[in-house]
Amino acid sequence: MNRWISAVDRTIVLIVGIALLAAGAYAIAWDAGASLIRTWVSRLDREVLFGLPEEPWWHWVLSGTFILCVFAGFGLLYLNLRRRRTSAVTLRHNESGTDVSVDLGPVADGVAAELAQLSGVRSTRSKATIDRGLPTLSIVVTADPAIDVVGFTTSAEHIARATRRSLDGSPVAVQVLLHLDRVEASK
């Protein structure tokens, strides 16, 4: 998730949380008979307060607030649910000085294929995404529960380092997640 989107989401949750906390504190204070709350409520001009929906501008403000909230809600949904696919990474060939564009999807598939050849690996899934602003090759490996985890980790780190070297100078992370299958119950 993008840091900016994450900050907006957290700010909205903070504002809603503070509003709910204030409403809950008010309700508890009212129920407890707190004189300060009852004094504040008694000072409200009830005729003005109950007359607000009869004002000519009330429906426009209510409609505008509704439309603004709908657009803000759909906008946040779009930003949070959109696919964060990587764009091609540009590599510079040192000897010739030319730029080469590399699509990270097939690179992730290649890393997954290498990991699939390790002993104990049952399946792999790969994707190239943007994780916190960094292009990331994410490979999920499903393996036999009896796999040598230390040996697998060493091999996976070696493959990840080789991949990073082949993408010389580009800011790309390689993430390998190991999931172990369930151990079958003995009969």
Q: Which secondary-structure class do the elements indicate?
A: alpha+beta
Which strands sit side by side, in order, in the main sheet?
3-4-5
Helix content: 40-55%
Q: What is the name of the CATH class of the largest domain?
A: Alpha Beta
Which whole number gives the mean pLDDT? 86
How do the SSEs run, as a string of H and E? Answer: HHHHEEHEEHE
Low-confidence stretches: none
Oligomer: single chain
Distance between the termini: 45 Å
Computed over alpha carbons, the radius of gyration is 28 Å
| Count of individual beta strands | 5
The CATH homologous superfamily of the largest domain is named Cation efflux protein, cytoplasmic domain
Described by the principal axes of the CA atoms, the overall outline is elongated
Binned strand content = 15-25%
The CATH topology of the largest domain corresponds to Alpha-Beta Plaits
How many helices? The count is: 6
CATH architecture of the largest domain: 2-Layer Sandwich
Number of domains: 2
The major pleated sheet works out as:
3 strands, mixed
